[in-house]
Structure formats: C-alpha cells, structure tokens
Design brief:
Chain lengths: ~120, ~475
C-alpha cells in the first residue's frame, strides 16, 4: 500500500509504541492519528477521513473487534498489531492481516497491502 | 330408651378416673381400681400425685403432669401414647408399669375446665394389647406416634444425608479427649478411610499429635473460642502413605448451657489443589520476570554492540541506555508486587533515581498514597525519566542549587471518577525555553499518562523554570 498522504488511525494504549509507529508512518509519508481508547477511535472514524487503520487487539483490556467490524463496514483497510497471546482471532476476523510486536515499517506496509486487497 | 351414662362408665371394663382442676381424684370406676390395685377409700379425694407418688424430677412425673397441665391450659384433649408410671403394690414394692392414656377436659357452663377424664390403659403386658386394641384405640394412638416418628425419621435422614454428602469435611469431637462422634464421607476420605468413630483424635490419627493439632483442640475447648486455619499444612497417613495436604478449616467449640465447651465441630475444605496452583503461578511469574529482565539486558547489549563502531553515536547509545534503565527500574518495582500495582511515589522515585543518581535528593516528592495500575506506573516512570533527563540537560538539575518539587493529589469531583493531579516544578535553574523541534522525550511528556480514561498534560516554560502538569482519571474503587 502506498501510504503517502494517507491519514492512518493507530489504536495503541502504549504511548511509546504509539509514538514510534507515528514516526514510522511519518517516514512513509503518512499522517498518523493516535487513539488510546476504543471510544476515542470510534469518534475519530466518525469525523475524520481515515485511509487505513492499525489496531492493537487489546487496549486497556478492551478488544478492538467491535471497532474492526465498524471499519470493515466503512470499507477502510485495517490490520491488527498484537503483543503476545492474541494471534487467534474470532472466526469473522481470522483472515485479517496481523503483525506481531515488535514490528517494522516493511511488515506494516506489507500487511496493509494485503488488507487493501481483501 | 334413655341411656344411663354413669352406670355405663361404672360398669365399663375400661379404666376411667375423673380429676378435678386441682388434680384430685374425684371419681373412678371399678376397672380403674382393679388396674391400680387400690380401694376407692384409699384414693378418692386425694391429689393424684399423693395417691400415686413419683419423683417430681422423673420423666414419668413430668410427662403426666405436663399432659394434665396442657389440658387445663388449652381445654383440648391430650394423649400420652406411652408412659412409664410405676405403682406401689399392696406388698409395698414399686411395680414397673407402662400406660397409655387420654386426658379429656369436661367443661362447665362457663366453658372452664371442671374435670379431666383420664382413660388409661395398662399396656405393661404386651399380649394384653391384642385383646384391647380395637376398643382402646391403642393402634390409633400408636400410629399417630408412629407418623410423628416417621416425620422425625425423615428429617433425621435428610440431615444425615446432607451431613454425609456435604462437599466439605465435617467431624464432631466430643469431650476432653476429642473423641470422634461423627465424621462425614469427605472427612473419612481426608484421613484415608480410617474408621475413627469412638476413638480419641490422638489414637485415631496419631500422626497429627506431633503437628500440634491436639494442643490446638485443647485450647479451643478451654477457651471456648473458635480457631480458624487457612492454608494449614497437615501431614496425614493415607492409602498412598504420608501425604501433605493444605486445609482451610474451623474448630468451632460447641458450648453447653453453662458456657463450657463440650465438643468441637471440625469443618473445612481441602485446598491443596488451589495452593499447588498458586505455587505454579508464582513460579511462572518469577520465570516471566526473569525472562523480561533478561530480554531488557539483551536489548541493551545489542544496542551497545550496534552503536560501538558508529561515528558520533555515543550520545544516542547513552540515551537509549538511560531509557532502558528507567524501564527496567519500573519493571523491577512492578515485579515486587507480582505485576498487580505500584505506589505512585515509588514509581517516581525509582525512575528519578535510575536517571539522576545521587541528585535524586534534589527532587522533593509530596503527595498522598496513590496506587497505580501497571501500565500507568510504567508510563509515569518513563515520563519522569524524560523530565529528569531534560532537567539534567537544560533545567534545574543543570545548576548546582536547582531543585524540583513534585506534587500530586487526588481531587474528588463528586459525580465523575477521582482525578489524579500531578505536577513537576523546577526552580533555581536557568529560565526554561520551549524547544524549537520537540524530541521524542518532549512528545512523550506531552502525550501524558497512558490511561484507560481521559488524561491531559500541560507544559509551561517560565523564567523561573520548567513546569509540567498532568491529570488523569483514576478508576473508582
């Protein structure tokens, strides 16, 4: 996926990881918008023109599958990013491209490209 | 044809006696005299318990008196299905006799009890029962008692089943030797199926004596106070040999009317599996902590190696090193609480210490006890690290007399969750100047605390020094 000029929603509750991802995406020419909570993310999806999204599966103990479903309906390509233990998703999200932490820009780009094709 | 009831009563083969309300023998038929072996002159007009004396403390006396008093009180007939009431024979000996009796009140014009008619049957000779059963209502009385007994039996059976099948172990130890009076299935299973009923604990379970349990039982009996044990380690002989179990249990003294303990109820659960699971979990957490620390050390080594031959990378390596140290300090703090929580003051102090070393003395901490969730503790530690680093480079800690005041408080706002207000105020150093291009540290500080609720941060660059204020909602307890 060409990230240049896209607005990418990052849902991540760990500020340091969020900042690093913001920098990575910035290097690829994208603008990142970080949400630490699911309700903030939902409000961003409502009001901003999001071009892609990267979701941590578990933010402050809340799963982001509900948000994923909302993104799917809106036709916004998205991927999951996880630490450990969240590699198996519910059936309806089984095919969503997933990157595991720690990740780099190439992995993110590759996963987003796969998500765009789905 | 008019029926003469008095003649009927007089001639009846059934013994009848009429008592007045003082329980004096007012009238009796011949059958009554025959069965009691008395003459009318001997007993008529005399109080019942004088004519037929019995020990007032005996069950016979209390049963008979109780029945008659019930009739006087309730004005309802009362039955004594079976009562032993001994009769003095002509020879002056006490003759053991069993009776079945009905007491029927005879009311006067005002509805008050005037007389009690006692219809009594000597049931001492059991073969006599058969000949009398039809007209004496013996069978009916017996069946009434029987059905009451049946109810009691059912209830007793139910209680016994409940006791026997209770998931926890239950036993009753009676007397100063703690003799087993009862022990349910779970208890018997606990002690390896040994038959202990009737035996003192010290004999039934000799292995527990040396473990102090008999002494404990003695104390409970003497003090009359229960003993509650949690996760108590007990070695018991079972089929597999001596076995170590962990028990939650109570020794509950059973007190008599005089307040002195007569028995001890033992009740509890075998929690060995839980204790073992907790132990496994503790080992896993220790292992995990060890691995996390190791991983941090490996990352640090990798960074050192990667930067080693890189021109001008010294500063970057030192920055990374310091950040990893702050992170490791926060992890060490959380490890000590099994990653449950950390105190805010500890998180700030450890991080500042890992960054500023001895200069941590110039950072004054002031605030109430606040418990932070692990993620909030780590993000606060990382923020404090960046604040301290900046203070060393550009702020209060770059001047020999500079100081930092760290204050926090909890604001109760009523409807909303309590707010944590945290401030960092540098004084005695150079004037603070906002950086032209904010680095990673400043961006992290601006982002504020990682919080599942809202958080906001404010940075002030003043002539007196740098100031930082952050607030976050704390989860309501």
């Amino acid at each position: 996926m060409n990230l240049d000029g896209r607005l990418v929603l990052v849902v991540e509750d760990e500020p340091i990881i969020g900042l690093a991802l913001e920098d990575m995406l910035g290097d690829a020419g994208a603008n990142a918008i970080i949400a630490e909570r699911v309700d903030d993310a939902l409000s961003i999806v409502e009001h901003e023109k999001i071009g892609a999204a990267i979701l941590d599966v578990n933010v402050h103990g809340v799963r982001t599958y509900g948000l994923a479903e909302r993104l799917g309906r809106a036709g916004i390509p998205y991927i999951f990013a996880t630490g450990y233990g969240d590699l198996s998703h519910p059936t309806e999200f089984a095919d969503v491209p997933t990157v595991t932490k720690p990740y780099n820009l190439q992995e993110i780009e590759r996963a987003l490209t796969a998500a765009e094709k789905q | 044809m008019p029926v003469d009831f008095k003649s009927l009563m007089v001639a009846s083969p059934n013994p009848y006696v009429l008592l007045d309300k003082e329980l004096k023998l007012a009238w009796m038929n011949d059958a009554y005299l025959r069965v009691t072996g008395r003459t009318r002159e001997e007993i008529v007009g005399r109080p019942l318990f004088e004519a037929f004396p019995s020990d007032p403390a005996s069950e016979s006396h209390r049963l008979l008196k109780g029945s008659l008093e019930r009739v006087l009180r309730t004005k309802q007939p009362d039955e004594l299905a079976l009562i032993r009431y001994d009769i003095r024979t002509v020879a002056g000996e006490m003759d053991v006799r069993y009776w079945s009796a009905t007491h029927t009140p005879l009311l006067d014009g005002d509805g008050q009890v005037e007389f009690i008619l006692q219809h009594t049957v000597d049931v001492t000779e059991m073969h006599g029962l058969r000949t009398m059963r039809d007209d004496m209502r013996i069978v009916e009385r017996a069946s009434q008692i029987q059905s009451e007994n049946l109810d009691l039996t059912e209830q007793t059976d139910l209680l016994r089943t409940m006791f026997e099948q209770a998931p926890g172990f239950v036993a009753l130890l009676t007397g100063p030797e703690h003799r087993f009076t009862l022990a349910n299935a779970a208890y018997r299973q606990l002690i390896g199926g040994r038959d202990v009923i009737g035996q003192p604990v010290a004999e039934a379970l000799p292995e527990v004596v040396g473990q102090g349990f008999v002494q404990l039982l003695d104390t409970v009996m003497q003090s009359g106070k229960p003993y509650v044990g949690r996760n108590v380690n007990v070695r018991l002989i079972r089929a597999s040999g001596e076995d170590e179990r962990f028990l939650d249990f109570i020794y509950q003294p059973i007190l008599g009317p005089d307040g002195v303990a007569t028995a001890v109820l033992v009740q509890g659960h075998d929690v060995t599996e839980q204790v073992e699971a907790q132990e496994v979990q503790r080992l896993l957490i220790n292992e995990l902590n060890h691995r996390v620390k190791n991983t941090l050390a490996i990352v640090q080594s990798l960074a050192t190696q990667s930067f080693r031959n890189l021109e001008g990378a010294d500063q970057a390596r030192r920055t990374l090193d310091a950040r990893l140290n702050a992170l490791a300090a926060a992890h060490a703090l959380l490890t000590s609480s099994n990653w449950e929580s950390a105190m805010l003051a500890d998180a700030v102090r450890k991080s500042a210490e890992a960054t500023a070393g001895a200069d941590v003395d110039r950072i004054r901490l002031n605030g109430p006890d606040v418990v932070l969730a692990p993620q909030a503790a780590v993000s606060l530690a990382m923020i404090v690290h960046e604040l301290t680093t900046n203070a060393i480079k550009y702020g209060a800690l770059s001047a020999p007399t500079g100081q930092i005041d760290v204050q926090w408080d909890i604001c109760e706002t009523g409807v909303r969750s309590p707010q944590l207000v945290f401030s960092w105020k540098e004084r005695g150093g150079p004037s603070a100047i906002e950086p032209q291009k904010p680095g990673f540290g400043t961006r992290l500080i601006k982002r504020g605390l990682s919080s599942e609720r809202s958080a906001s941060a404010k940075l002030n660059y003043t002539a007196e020094g740098f100031e930082y204020h952050v607030t976050m909602e704390l989860p309501r307890e």
